[in-house]
Amino acid sequence: MKRLLWKSSLRHLQRHPLQLALAILGVALGVAVVVGIDVANGSALRAFELSTDTIAGKATHQIVGLDGVIPEGLYQQLRIDLGLRRVAPVVEGHAKLLRPDSPTFSIMGIDPFAEARFRNFTSSGPQGSLDLGIFLTLPGASLLAAEAASSLGIAPGDEFEIDIGGAVRTLVLVGHLPATDDAQLAAIRDLLIVDIATAQETLGLVGSLTRIDLIRPLAMTEAEFEESVAAILPPTTDLRSRRARTSTAEQMTRAFRLNLQALSLLALLCGAFLIYNTMTFAVVQRRPLLAILRVLGTTRREIFVLILGEAVLIGAAGTILGELGGLWLGQSLIGRVTQTINDLYFAVDVREVAVAPWTLLKGGLLGLTATAAAAIAPSIEATNTEPREALVHSELESRVHRAIPTLSFLGILLLVLGTGLIFLPSGALWLAFTGLFAVLVGYALLTPLATMALMRWLTPFAGAISGQLGRIATRGVVTALSRTGIAIAALMMALSVTVGVDLMVRSFRGTVNRWLEYALPADLYLSVFTAPARRFSPGGVTIDQATIDTIADLDQVLATNLLTHFSAVVDGESVRAVALELSPESHGAFAFRQGDPMAIWRRIEAGEAVMVSESFAYRRALGEGDSVRILSPKEIFELPIAGVFYDYSTEQGLLMLARTLYQRGWSEDGATALSIHTAAGTNLDELSDLIRGRLPPDLRVRLSSNRQLRQESMRIFDRTFVITGVLRTLAVIVAFVGVLSALLALQLERTRELGVMRACGLTPGQLWMLVTQQTGLLGLTAGVLSLPVGVSMAAIMVYTINRRSFGWSLELDLFPLTLVQAVAVGVVAALLAGLYPAWRMARTRPSEALREE
Amino acid sequence: MPTDLSDRAPTIELSGVSKSYREAGRDHIVLEGVDLLVQPGELVVLLGRSGSGKSTLLNLLGGLDQPDSGSVAIGGIEITSLGERDRTLFRRRNIGFIFQFFNLLPTLTVLENLLLPLELEGKGTEAMRGPCLEMLAAVGLVDRADSFPDRLSGGERQRVAVARGLIHQPQLILADEPTGNLDVGTGRQVIDLLDSLTRQSGRTLLMATHSQQVVGLADRILTIENGRLVELDKEDPA
């Protein structure tokens, strides 16, 4: 490439520093969002992987209970019947210290004798000064990492209290966990090790294990080993290889992460539009210059490389900044992502930012590819500069006007294709996102046509308000369509993303709010104190029948409903299940998508059928009338689905059955939650105090009124969407940068035209008005056009993407405020962006503006 | 692809060249069956009113545009049969352009504007600094070598444009109204400069103008009337 061409190009960029900075900022923001989300997601998964790896040790396989537990006898069977020596029983759960600042600990019960081949928790390393005799014989003996123990102020020999799913237990620290490297140190920081018997007792899992770790004997092949173990496994258990473990966590959070990634890609799409916008302006602005180069003998290829090279340079600068910004953003978002994963999926505590090289590579590739892709069209456009355009200036606009039918046709084609992809009968999420992106680009291609139509319609009004200046403003938008069209499309895209995401979140919130209105008909709700995601874990405490009876006997209590959360094995899969016994007053808590509710309830209560949540049915492609096979410790139930109910509490799906069935199959009597209907005029605070007085002293429960529970649910909902809000705000910033960049370039490019107007007698004030009116019009057009696009985007996200991600039916709510806000943001951003050019133009002497070079 | 001119062939050879443009749904004929032969070293002036087709003819000669029919040969090479890329390379080596509106690159200094055509030809810019400075000295602007075009007056800019049009020693120089944007005095200076530099080096110059002041210098005077090229009497061009 010729040095002087580059020099000329770089000087052009230097002479437009603000445009250059805005373009770099646009790419940087886009890349930062993608990298940030990836870092946050990756860190959470890496933390999970690290902790499971440390906890799993050298195990090649694990046996897990599909309903959360494994009968203890299986361990003996493996050792005796199969003669396996490298087998270790494990009982796991979660606990918090009874201190306000305590993190969630993984409590792990081990057999020190079986452990040595798997983990070094009970070895005596530099920090592991463990007396095995005390560990095995002292009731409540436990081990903590030295760092965790000292930060909590617990010294060896100290007693401390922990809360396990509502029950309070006392443990004694008898030693520290040894760590050989930083990775292990990080993984054991939140680990609490106890003897297996202590864990069984503490977690309420006497006679059960939660996991058995195995190391395949070298003499056996993987297939032989798996076959021999599988032969003695009860149907409620599953043998998993080491690889399958992390993929479970990945699958559970896949939709959540994919949605975040897609949102971050939308921000990048806005950034790409910004680049497209900037590069197109760079080409349009330099058309005469490019024509001179062509006259002097520069080939089309050289021009193409020059413009693309410029874009790549901008892209590279933006990408580097974006990568750095992304690392910072990722660090800030980790807390939000982890909170959501903890609320919805599994317990994970992220202390360190994990930056996979792939994350940075992906960010870099995306930034550069988006830039290059966005710059290809302008680069080709630049090569089409005819040398004689050095002499003829008016050709470009007429060419753009001639291209409108083709652009519009392509736009409609993309809209049809995108819609087709969305409605394709497939559950694939990526197809829906591809469709969404096609629809967005389709709308962008229709922008010039829509702008022309809108301006034609607005011209008489503008004329009536501002006379000739008003008409100049609207006509100016159309006559400079090659530039205004792009500016409007870029701003429209960014605004529509904010409209779409905002409407989606508000619709989601509205649906959940309406659901909570009927899903919480009782007055008071009592549940064992445990995180929602761990409510279905085995063990933990329940409220026993005697306590339930004493509560039911209270005068103010009209009726009680009992719910027991547990994990069930349904069609060979672990499923979140609830056993329920409801009073007729609470039947209204469930809305069925079809069927007669009375008939459905009759069948459920008779134990003849089950009901499942909508996401349960969607994920497994089941419907009313289909049967499910449920394994219980006592018998196998083959039951039809009587009804599918709307539920937004978990995307994993819920299966509900009558309490009588649960008592029969699982021989359990307790409940994990109670909802209470009270007599009219009952003081709920007084009743809560009365109930607390009747509870066993070591049972920690959450007692909330209907209102409190609804507020709490909405708080969790809002917390889940905080990250979406952050992404939306970033998209607005990208939008603002976009409009600033576009309008700045547009108005600065019109220096000569405005100079002519000044020469014709336009006062600086009138000029200021003209520029402001025109930028305001561009903002208004973009704002107005963003409404149908944003609403379409919201509809796609609400009806297709959310459904495919989570299996939920949501209702689209059109919030007028969101729509008004988008138009207002467009106009205000445009007006603000017009301030500098207007000020500059008004200050420029007409003679200066009219200078040719 | 042959892009070097033959010394013996006529510099310009047009044969039956026609060109029309479509405007408002109608064909507007600009040139119709034009034939022309210009020998090396001739200074030809093309007179005519605005819109008569002077610029169109120059564009065809420079390979900036293609005729509807007929052929254009420069130095024995038929450029109408060349592809777009080859036409560009041909122009790069053999033709110098001078425009009414100067068309200097605002992002390059005066010296760099001169170096650019040489660099495009693949000649080392460092080695070419000397010849460029000599050329600038010839047009009286060596002291402005490091200035950007926007710091120069109109006359100075056109002198730079003349220097740039000649620096790569093209066989054919096409000048489109080179004085059209200058006052009479400055215009005269530029014409004298152009005349002396082209005649010194024996190059062919075809200059489109409607200025009568150039007529005295011309070897031949042509005009376009109703799309046809007409040669005028040099002594009595009116």
Produce a short descriptive summary.
With 853 residues, chain A is α+β, with helices and mostly antiparallel strands. Chain A contains 28 helices and 20 strands.
Explain the overall architecture.
The complex is a heterodimer of chains A (853) and B (238). Chain A is α+β, with helices and mostly antiparallel strands and 853 residues long. Chain A folds into four domains: 1-61 and 250-388, no CATH class; 68-235, no CATH class; 446-521 and 706-853, no CATH class; 530-699, no CATH class. Helices cover 60% and strands 15% of the residues of chain A. Chain A has a six-stranded mixed barrel with strand order 3-4-8-5-7-6, surrounded by four helices. A six-stranded mixed β-barrel of chain A has the order 13-14-18-15-17-16. In chain A, helix 2 crosses helix 10, helix 13 runs antiparallel to helix 14 (357-383) and helix 16 packs antiparallel against helix 26 (764-806). The longest helix of chain A is centred in the middle third of the chain and has 51 residues, at 429-479. Chain A is elongated and about 95 Å long. With 238 residues, chain B is of the alpha/beta class. Chain B has a domain at 41-64 and 92-229: 3-Layer(aba) Sandwich (Rossmann fold). Chain B is built from six helices and ten strands, in the order E-E-E-H-E-E-H-E-H-H-H-E-H-E-E-E. Chain B has helices at residues 54-61, 84-94, 110-120, 125-138, 154-166, 184-201; strands at 12-23, 26-38, 43-47, 69-74, 77-78, 95-98, 172-176, 204-208, 220-225, 228-232. In chain B, helix 3 packs across helix 4 (125-138), helix 3 packs parallel to helix 5 (154-166) and helix 5 (154-166) packs parallel to helix 6 (184-201). Chain B starts with 11 loop residues before the first strand and ends in a 6-residue tail after the last strand. The model of chain B has no long low-confidence stretch (mean pLDDT 85). Chain A binds chain B through residues 2-5, 7-9, 11-12, 15, 288-289, 292-301, 386-388, 390-391, 851-853, and chain B through 55, 59, 62, 64-65, 84-85, 88-89, 91-93, 97, 99, 101-108, 112, 115-117, 119-121, 125, 149-150, 157, 176.
